[in-house]
Write a structure and sequence with these properties.
314 residues; alpha/beta; six-stranded parallel β-sheet; three-stranded antiparallel β-sheet; 12 helices; 12 strands; 19% strand; globular; binds zinc ion; Ssirtuin_cat_dom
């Protein structure tokens, strides 16, 4: 089974051409979604009952909801990046302290951006958007940085770890759209070209050192400071105000549904602990075990995009 899609990006007279150099033979879903048993009608009914009984539902999503949109996760057995490759996410402290590391990060992110930013919501994202429109969703918290909930139209949403579609100046805090930065990259690197093999959950790709060293990285237009995606890298902490905000939403809720997260990262897991303190019923939809299976009244090992659209949000 082919595990990644090859992409070729070449600069030609300031025009960028993107093409699939090795077409995906299985489509995005088959590549990154772990195998799961067929849908169990009894479990579907149980989830329907859980949702129907909930009047203030809080949903927390993780990487597992986006694998069906073609974005790999890190932790899934066999299909996650940790299992398939030696790739590991960048550490916050390395990014902040080292200009060469930032150069490498941005060069790779620049190459991966056209594909990463083109990902679209899948039926699970659309289902949650519909739940919000129907008044079924008290709040949605996502650990993902891919903007797919926003693309699907969700507004009652907290992006716990930020969003790759925004850029932050480390010096003055100015926020700018990531799309604008892509244009600045292109202007500064008109003859630079690279080939990328596979894109990670944060838009990262592989490049050689030689390719990286010739890549020009722009700085903040306002103050000249270094730029960083507006996301929480590993080793950094989520803004305390944002954490407090989500804790309040959890305390207001009457039930909690986890979608596509193994809850291994504490920044999301802590809200499960708050829900447990409040004795909220917890349901978990995730292929494979999670850190909180023993706290859940309902556990479903199904594809998010197959199951959630079956649930009627009344
Ligand atoms: Zn600045």
């Amino acid at each position: 089974m082919r595990m990644s899609c090859g992409l070729t990006y070449r600069s030609m007279k300031s025009r960028w051409i993107t093409k699939l150099s090795r077409p995906c033979s299985h489509g995005p879903m088959g590549l990154f979604v772990p195998p799961s048993p067929p849908l169990d009608p009894k479990k579907v009914k149980e989830l329907q009952r859980f949702i129907t009984l909930s009047k203030k539902l809080l949903v927390m999503t993780g990487a597992g909801i986006s694998t069906e949109s073609g974005i790999p996760d890190y932790r899934s057995e066999k299909v996650g990046l940790y299992a398939r490759t030696d790739r590991r996410p960048i550490q916050h402290v390395d990014f902040v302290r080292s200009a060469p590391i930032r150069q490498r990060y941005w060069a790779r992110n620049f190459v991966g951006w056209p594909q990463f930013s083109a990902h679209q919501p899948n039926p699970a994202h659309w289902a949650l958007s519909n739940w919000e429109k129907r008044g079924k969703l008290h709040w949605l918290v996502t650990q993902n940085v891919d903007a797919l909930h926003t693309k699907a139209g969700n507004q009652r949403l907290t992006e716990l770890h930020g969003c790759m579609h925004r850029v932050l100046c480390l010096n003055c805090g100015e926020q700018t759209p990531r799309g604008l930065l892509q244009e600045r990259f292109q202007d500064l690197n008109p003859s630079w070209s690279a080939e990328a093999q596979g894109v990670a959950p944060d838009g990262d790709v592989f490049l050689s050192e030689e390719q990286v060293q010739t890549f020009q990285v722009p700085s903040c237009v306002r103050c000249g400071g270094p730029l960083k995606p507006d996301v929480v890298f590993f080793g950094d902490t989520v803004n305390p105000d944002k954490v407090d905000f989500v804790h309040r939403r959890v305390r207001e809720a009457d039930s909690l549904l986890v979608v596509g997260s193994s809850l291994q990262v504490y920044s999301g897991y802590r809200f499960i602990l708050t829900a447990r303190e409040k004795k909220l019923p917890i349901a978990i939809l995730n292929i494979g075990p999670t850190r909180s299976d023993d706290l859940a009244c309902l556990k479903l090992n199904s594809r998010c995009g197959e199951l959630l659209p079956l649930i009627v949000p009344h």
